[in-house]
């Protein structure tokens, strides 16, 4: 019995349970926690906990795929494809991301958050594969995208033709929509989409609401212009990145 136990592989420190694998797990944990912290600060639905769990779990699954079957491998008899289990991460995260995306008030919400979850899984897989430089590089690219791209897009939109979507609440019976359309016509903004709120949504309040999309040069100033129209009670601009 003593000889059999001695020959048995150790529970800790065996193949795939060394310092290298622990470092890879902690790198996945740290990098995806940074992404999750950014999402948390932005108030997104998949924040610190979700992103970190996804990234760390992806790294663990990949390590299991690489080292978890060494005790059953036999030359010429049992051969395991180490990429088989890891490949299921991609399809699994696809289902998770689909649950984050929702359609509300004529616009899609959650696309960027779903993409960030996918990104966290990819970073975790890279860390679990030992590709630490790639994992760090993609994490840095994430912050370049979320911090740098939005100001650049707004700067270009202010100088080029663009579009803006907003929900406008206004008092009924005061000709607000007529004045709104006149203001848009003076500035050569085109009304590309218009959706009236569902009947009963503002029942008894004396107000109505519309979801509209305007396009044209310097259209980013439209919320300010429309807010100055007498009878407009509220404006909610839909974020260019509402997720």
From TrEMBL:
Entry keyword annotation includes rRNA processing: no
Keywords, in A-Z order: Cell membrane, Membrane, Transmembrane, Transmembrane helix
Membrane topology qualifier: Multi-pass membrane protein
Source superkingdom: Bacteria
Transmembrane segments: 20-37, 46-65, 85-103
Pfam families hit by this protein: MgtC
Localization of this protein: Cell membrane
MgtC/SapB/SrpB/YhiD N-terminal domain boundaries: 25-154
PANTHER family in the record: MAGNESIUM TRANSPORTER YHID-RELATED, PROTEIN MGTC
Family the UniProt entry places it in: Belongs to the MgtC/SapB family.
The protein's name: MgtC/SapB family protein
